[in-house]
Design brief:
Length: about 775
């Protein structure tokens, strides 16, 4: 630090023509039109198609096969005549010639065991078996299957405002999720030889046709998920008679599939503020053993949803409670095998209720009558009104803290997906971040309201720093197609969630952000938004220009590394000779002394002028620190020409600091500077990111305080995702790292098991 004596304060800057980071996004966003307004709202000519389904399903629990007949009624609300229709055949990802297998990059180092190789070559006869497609008169319709897409050719174009109905008969072999993987399939329980089915993407589904892409018929490769039109569903599901079924929508025939006692419990649950068991663990365990040979048919209806999924098993325990949202009761339910307890009975339904309540506060009121969480191992996947979630204790009922938080997090996240993208229906096939990133952000808010200081994995800015400081060759911009993303979790979940948190906490403030975010959700509920609609709405509803932020955080791989590289300390010259000469004397007395001069004090016994004082002249005898009459006269002249306010300011003891900041990471961000004073007090000043608008690499700023500063700290609250905190302080500080010479013995024992072992030892056991 430099302490300089100056007469007046001045500063200058050198303008550099570098404005790319603050250039508007106009050229990168699609041109606004009658379908999508420049404000980010749906345009006056906005439209979307409708697809209604009536399905009859039969699940074969012996062969693990699903048969279906579906009738689709498709309504063309677009201004365009359609000569053909496109449908998604997502199960075809399991065909032996599936592109998802062929394009997989492989190295021998990925295969470390025989089981790894066997899994790679695991044979599974998957994919849809389309038996026939007919019109409502029973006449065959022409169709062509292109991998995971199917085109149905129409005898005549479907004109604007018209609808068409047709029927598809199909079947497929359900995949073993533990062996094959996937979002849908079954889990087999060796101990009791039963199956738990979580079934989704199980029927040919209409593609979206809209003003952005026309038909959204990009092939399904496994990562980019599903964009689907809204519609109404009527579905009958035939399963073994002792199975319990959970599905999208409301069951229409509980009277015929539940016992009288279970119906009483169900009616009680609808009025209860705490979970009520509808199917008990004892009832589920009895069903596991008996294995009914007869069947029952469950009938479900769902209105204005974009998809349908269900789960079924004789192993299901089932509990439920109500949650009031926006003046309406929602029935929150959980279905889980005994293997999920005690975690699931204790937490799942309460988490569902909390999630829809909290999400409703930040987005829109939850619109559906039910919200369901289903437990199966190693999964986290979402569908309208229902989701499949992992989180399983050890066989002895104990669990680690990580397992508990993992279960909490996945339930909140997957239930939250009801809002993104099941209601605010973005195109997941193109932009994963629009559902996963936005959902992860609201998940973070929901976790924090569930438990104080909840250890959220994603959301706080500092948690993304390691990813952002990594090798840029392994990082993709957020605005990357779903199938091309590197580091999927960090890119599509973590970074966009962090970006929104930074907008809320630092750039916009909570009030402005929450209003704009809720506006986006309200505008695009039950519609198909694009990234541009989100970017434009956030600015439109807040009057905050965020183009620089979208450009940096969403379109680039720059990272945040802003360094505090220089601090200069200035004090104002009072012009008072008594004060200033005394200050000069003190300053000179504190100067460092050259080592040679120090040694000369003893090595030189006597200098020439010490032997002969007669050689000293005026300058040798002059006291430069003495105040004389001329000094006093000059000061009085200065005082007579200076206002009282100016004199008071000069004598107020103001401390001026010029701080220099360098943008080392490329990503411009606000400057949050904390000054600490000698008395321990602190002052935080916030400078918007626009300070970088002229010069993007290096800027300086002058700060004025009433007392000297002992330290400066940049980003003191860890809110900008700065990747190098070591260059954020002045003076530089060193933080010790505990170095452990010997690794601790590794153990798989969780803390609950350790406590049991301790209690056993205290009782006198081994």
């Amino acid at each position: 630090m430099k302490k300089l004596f100056i007469a007046i304060l001045t500063f200058s800057s050198t303008a550099v023509l570098a404005q790319t980071k603050f250039a508007q996004l106009d050229q990168m966003l699609p041109t606004a039109n009658s379908y999508r307004a420049a404000s980010g709202a749906p345009g006056h000519a906005y439209y979307q198609q409708k697809a209604d389904y009536k399905m009859t399903l039969v699940l074969d629990d012996n062969k693990q096969r699903l048969d279906g007949v579906e009738t689709i009624t498709y309504t063309n609300n677009s201004p365009d005549p359609l000569a053909y229709l496109w449908l998604q055949l997502d199960q075809n990802i399991y065909n032996l010639d599936s592109d998802s297998k062929i394009i997989e990059v492989e190295k021998m180092e990925n295969f470390k065991s025989v089981s790894d190789l066997r899994k790679r070559d695991f044979y599974y006869d998957g994919g849809f078996k389309i038996e026939k497609i007919t019109n409502m008169s029973g006449q065959p319709m022409s169709y062509f299957i292109n991998k995971t897409m199917m085109r149905i050719d129409l005898a005549k174009p479907l004109l604007p405002g018209q609808n068409i109905s047709f029927q598809i008969k199909w079947w497929y072999n359900i995949n073993d999720r533990m062996q094959v993987g996937g979002r849908s399939g079954y889990e087999y329980f060796e101990t009791d030889q039963n199956y738990l089915y979580t079934i989704a993407q199980f029927f040919p589904r209409m593609c979206v046709y809209n003003d952005v892409t026309g038909w959204q018929n990009k092939q399904f490769l496994g990562r980019g998920e599903f964009t689907l039109p809204f519609g109404d569903y009527e579905v009958s599901i035939t399963v073994p008679a002792d199975h319990i079924v959970a599905a999208t929508g409301e069951c229409q025939n509980y009277a015929s599939v539940l016992t009288a006692e279970q119906r009483k419990r169900y009616d009680l649950a609808k009025k209860s503020d705490a979970p009520v068991l509808i199917v008990t663990q004892a009832e589920a365990e009895a069903a596991e053993k008996n294995k009914a040979q007869k069947t029952k048919t469950w009938v479900y209806k769902a209105t204005n949803v974009r998809d349908f999924a269900f789960a079924t098993s004789r192993k299901f325990i089932w509990d439920a409670q109500k949650q009031t949202v926006g003046g309406k009761d929602v029935l929150c339910m959980s279905y889980y095998p005994k293997e999920g307890n005690p975690l699931w009975e204790r937490y799942s339904t309460k988490l569902v209720a909390h999630t829809i309540k909290t999400y409703s506060k930040y987005t829109i009121n939850y619109p559906y009558p039910v919200a369901i969480s289903v437990h199966s191992k190693w999964i986290g996947m979402e569908y309208p009104m229902i989701c499949f979630n992992g989180g399983r204790p050890e066989p002895d009922g104990t669990y680690s803290e990580g397992e508990k938080y993992g279960m909490w997090g996945v339930i909140i996240h997957e239930v939250g997906h009801n809002f993104f993208p099941m209601i605010i229906n973005s195109d997941e096939r193109q932009w994963t971040w629009m559902d996963e990133g936005l959902n992860t952000f609201v998940q973070y808010l929901t976790e924090q309201e569930w438990e104080r200081d909840y250890p959220s994995r994603r959301g706080p800015a500092y948690l993304i720093a390691d990813y952002m400081r990594g090798d840029v060759s392994g990082i993709s911009p957020i605005m990357t197609n779903s199938e091309s993303i590197k580091q999927f979790g960090n890119n599509a979940y973590g970074k966009p969630a962090t970006a929104l948190n930074i907008l809320r906490e630092t750039i916009m403030g909570r009030e402005l952000f929450d209003y704009a975010f809720k506006t986006y959700c309200e505008r695009w509920a039950f519609k198909h938004p694009t990234p541009a609609d989100f970017f434009r709405t956030m600015e439109d509803a807040s009057a905050v220009d965020l183009d620089w932020f979208w450009r940096g955080w969403f379109y680039s791989t720059d990272h945040v590394d802003i360094a505090l590289t220089d601090v200069k300390w200035f004090q104002l010259n009072t012009q008072n000779p008594t004060i200033e000469k005394a200050f000069l004397q003190q300053k000179d007395a504190q100067k460092d002394i050259f080592i040679g001069a120090t040694r000369n004090q003893t090595s030189i016994v006597q200098t020439v002028n010490e032997r002969d004082p007669q050689i000293d002249d005026f300058y040798a005898k002059r006291n430069i620190y003495a105040v004389d009459a001329l000094d006093e006269k000059a000061y009085q002249s200065f005082v007579s020409k200076t206002s009282a306010e100016e004199l008071a300011y000069l004598n107020a003891g103001k401390q001026l600091y010029e701080l220099t900041f360098e943008n080392l990471g490329g990503l411009v961000m606000p400057l949050i500077i904390e000054a600490t004073f000698a008395d321990g007090s602190k002052k935080v000043q916030r400078i918007p990111a626009e300070i970088w608008r002229i010069e993007e690499l290096k800027v300086s700023k002058v700060f004025v305080y009433d007392q000297p500063v002992v330290s400066f700290r940049l980003d003191p609250f860890l809110e900008t995702a700065d990747t190098d905190l070591d260059n954020n302080t002045w003076p530089r500080t060193l933080q010790p790292t505990r170095y452990q010479l010997y690794k601790q013995e590794q153990t798989r024992e969780n803390p609950m098991q350790r406590q049991q072992r301790l209690e056993q030892m205290q009782r006198g056991g081994n």
